[in-house]
Design brief:
Elements (H helix, E strand, L loop, with lengths): L3 H17 L2 H17 L8 H12 L4 H12 L7 E8 L5 E8 L2 H14 L3 E2 L9 E10 L6 H10 L2 E7 L2 E7 L3 H10 L6 E8 L3 E2 L2 H15 L4 E6 L1 E2 L10
Parallel strand pairs: 8-10
Antiparallel strand pairs: 1-2, 1-3, 2-9, 4-6, 4-7, 5-6
Helix pairs in contact: 2-3, 2-4
Length: 249
């Protein structure tokens, strides 16, 4: 996939920064709580959405107590006010920016997201305006171990629905079509492999490289959106250009 590797580098490095300041814990706690209510209770064995959320939480070393508190909130009905919202628009230099939110106040979220787009040289569009840029895909990430036979593993995973693989920075990233996400998740379970992260992502089918100044402008918008408590994920089609990885720190 042209561009996927450098695009995913942004997601991984941004994710590491989020973990340091606890932001990703907050997001995952909210996802766990909503998964309990929407996915069918607090037992991960019978609730695939919850099982995946817990798996992702463990992948970033989220404390067990945090996970248990989030589950109890969902069982107690505290997730009832959360509403899923998405926003689509463009940042500086025409970079596509797709925002996913879980909010208990839609008006507040709309105002804050719109203000972020506007302040940082972007424009919020209508829902559906970025459909042609992003494909909804299942993405599984697992660390490569010394005893891992990657070629044999890939063949097994293709049988489960995998259609693309990336090896980068000691990780194997496995991708599949949206409709194969559940089957591939089951395949990992059959192989007794627990990915560090498993989620549905919006993968850009084209990416753009900016000069350093434009790159920093786009990343400022992304940073502000990701710092919003209502925002769960920010997807974009910005690619890391030569020598720009250090600008992510």
């Amino acid at each position: 996939m042209s561009g996927h590797s450098k695009w995913s580098t942004i997601k991984r490095k941004k994710g590491a920064a989020d973990a340091k300041r606890g932001k990703i814990f907050s997001r995952l706690s909210k996802e766990i709580t909503v998964a309990v209510k929407e996915g069918g209770g607090g037992d991960p064995e019978g609730n695939p959405r919850l099982r995946m959320a817990i798996q992702n939480a463990k992948g970033v070393n989220m404390p067990k107590d945090n996970i248990e508190r989030a589950i109890k909130k969902g069982i107690g009905g505290e997730a009832s006010s959360y509403i899923e919202q998405t926003f689509e628009g463009y940042g500086p230099s025409g970079i596509a920016v797709f925002v996913e939110c879980l909010t208990d106040n839609q008006n507040r979220t709309v105002q804050e997201v719109r203000a972020a787009y506007s302040k940082y040289e972007g424009n919020m569009g209508t829902n559906g305006s970025l459909e042609f840029i992003f494909d909804r895909k299942g993405v599984f990430t697992l660390p490569i171990t010394e005893d891992m036979d990657i070629e044999s593993l890939e063949l097994e995973l293709i049988d489960g629905g995998a259609d693309d693989f990336t090896v980068e920075e000691g990780y194997l990233t496995v991708m599949c079509a949206l409709e194969d996400f559940g089957n591939l998740n089951k395949k990992f379970e059959e192989l007794e492999i627990e990915p560090e992260n498993a989620e549905l992502q919006r993968i850009p089918n084209n990416t753009k490289v900016m000069d350093d100044e434009e790159f920093k402008k786009v990343m400022k918008l992304i940073d502000v959106l990701e710092d919003n408590d209502d925002v769960q994920q920010v997807w974009h089609n910005l690619e890391v250009g030569e020598g720009q990885e250090e600008l992510l720190n």
